[in-house]
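Onboarding guide, step 5: your first structure request.
Type a short instruction followed by the sequence, for example:

Predict the 3D structure of this protein.
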Amino acid sequence: MGMSAINQIFGHHMSWFPNSISGHITEMLMVNKIPGALWAAASITIILSVVLLIASNFMLKTKEMAD
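The system replies with structure tokens like these:
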């Protein structure tokens, strides 16, 4: 819900926001060219996923050490 609300408020300013990936893919299929904003949105999504995986791993290790 949070990302959707941010996208609705600031979506016209941030075409690289991860929630806009489906729109960029639709555009890519229609014009047969990959839009630059799709690369940016996909990169941000991958980076955020890696950061969250690293954070969860760190939290798990910290929790195991506390027990």
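Each response can be followed by summary notes, for example: Residues 36-66 form the longest helix (31 residues).
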